[in-house]
Amino acid sequence: MTKHSELTSHLKEYFGFDTFKGNQEAIIQNVLDGKDTFVLMPTGGGKSLCYQLPSLLMEGTAIVISPLIALMKNQVDAMRNFSEEDGVAHFLNSSLTRAAIDVVKEDVISGKTKLLYVAPESLTKEENIEFLRQVKISFYAIDEAHCISEWGHDFRPEYRRIRPIINEIGVAPLIALTATATPKVQHDIQKNLNMLNATVFKSSFNRPNLYYEVRSKTKDVDKDIIKYIRSQAGKSGIIYCLSRKKVEELAETLQVNGISALAYHAGMDSLQRSENQDKFLMEKADVIVATIAFGMGIDKPDVRYVIHYDIPKSLEGYYQETGRGGRDGGEGQCIAFYAYKDLDKLRKFMQGKPVAEQEIGNQLLLETQAYAESSVCRRKLLLHYFGEEYTLENCGSCDNCMKPRKFVEGKELLVLVLETVQQLKEKFKAEHIVDVLKGNESPDVKSYQHVDLENFGSASDEDEKLLHAVIRQAMIAGYISKDIETYGVLKMTASGKEYLKNPKSFPIVKDTEFEDDEDDMSSRNTGGTCAADDVLFSILKDLRKKLSKKLEVPPFVIFQDPSLEAMATSYPISMDELQNIPGVGAGKAKRYGEEFLKVIREHVKENEIIRPEDLRVRTVANKSKLKVSIIQSIDRKIALDDIALSKGLDISELLDEIEAIVYSGTKINIDYFLDEVMDPDRVDEIFEYFNTAETDKISTALDELGENDYSETEVRLVRIKFLSEIGN
User: Fold this and answer.
1) How confident is the model at residue 524, as a pLDDT?
2) I want to staple 36 with a disulfide (CB 3.0 to 4.6 A). Which of 195, 313, 631, 703 is the partner?
3) Model-level pTM greater than 0.70?
4) Domains of the chain
5) Sign of CA pseudo-dihedral 433, 438, 442, 448
């Protein structure tokens, strides 16, 4: 047993710190005593020290199993800085040459090396197992231990093999560490590593200095992000995107708008990647745009904001990524952009995976959706997810607590929910319970004959979202629990049973409504704000109406509402500026632009308007590469489904791109494709419809034409033909 004063002096001697943080000292003591140790500590809590210090004090070499090569290099460099002896820490992974591996092995055998970082893949290699058998091992540290669990946000099958390999090399005490684990994941880790008797050290997951906010993701999301970053001038930030393509596009858009941003993702050349990481750490760049691979174990204490461009696949991933903000205890703003269609995209990605994996993925996505849409304190929701109770009614630093919330009485609905959970013998998930209460005859409800239940349809006039909100808030209140083992089946707790006997007031807050962008450009939602200048907007609409009569074309053929809204917000007064308006290409600007510019110039002059030209978001010319290549493919009469395939788009995404091309005034001819896939009479009927239509909305067209007869894709295809021929 090492005394407190001794440990503190070692801490000062090796790392230069005067005191331990949180549970560090107790954890280190537990490791020194040779006991298995399980550490749950949020990002920034100082996990690494929990195995670094004991490795220096114990006889032999500590083996640290870690998933990321960049992370190993980072930590080995840090350890070498603390020590005079370079050989004190090494890593063993696929990036090393044969000669470098020999140096590592020599230092380990000679006893110089106290810490050896190994990737799980390297650990399974026969030659490494043979080598490690000859080494005196002080203990094993498994970092990022959530990778063991299929329910963790970053499951890695090779982590499942760690225990059998340890048994093969030679048993020694274990320390498993993670920054995010729900109770289910925690149990999974301990079971798999055969350390159910380990001493568990769990720090609070609450990060009081972080502010959480979820914003509606509209078509103007890039503009919103640029405005936000400009308001945070000189501060460091991370933006997470789900795809590598989006990382590169967004980094480029930020650069052309004068923001020093760099990209980071696993598909980049590793030299370029570590160079970008270093520039960010050295503050030569303010913003890093990255996939989730960025930031694991990277110790930059002053990241002031973390933006999620896409909603993450799981709340654990979200918690870990937001945790990279404000690690020094200072300000950390966490802003996520949410659109329901992003969840749909993530669900599509899961198709084709094993059923169990899809079930897990779907459960995790539902939790993320619930977090985004709920109006409950975000801190309360996050901490509840990690098995921790947050008792304050208002945390004072999340968007839900900062805005006035309307409470509605949920007592009667809660009673119905609890009764239904009981009637269903605690064997069904939230979705099924909502179907029963709403009286939805879904296939499951029918096949289990739940149409005959007493509560079937008992809340038929209530909104589904409200019923889901009741269920979630009942979980937070402890009346219902969710059984993760069975993919989210709802069970009633003892206090739920008690509540049914003596119901009392149960105030709940309704979920936030997130408007989804409509199916086409004409009905863009810009988060509740349309044109900044309503007067100019109506003047421009009148002008469009006049022109539409004169030219005998529907108004939307000239300019769409979003284009007029943008004109009435940024006041373009030259042809160049007009062409920066969404949906206005060179062709349209030439044909109709001068009359619109004249009206805008007069309005600006008369009202002495200061134009927000400096707020204009510059777009990247590169984006047009895709458009040019689509136009060329259409000129060569390549079938649209083949074009989509070659560009890695689905047909709907390709039609989005083609619509943007024709809306901005470029003429294209897709007759060759229509002749192949559609009957000429059908084409004529849809074409005729648009000729007299008031709006180009697809939903309106489908209603007018009769949904049974035409598919959305057919209507979109003919709308492209119509706009191209009549408008351009």
Assistant:
1) 36
2) 195
3) no
4) 4-202 (3.40.50.300), 210-402 (3.40.50.300), 407-509 (1.10.10.10), 521-615 (1.10.150.80), 623-727 (1.10.10.1390)
5) positive
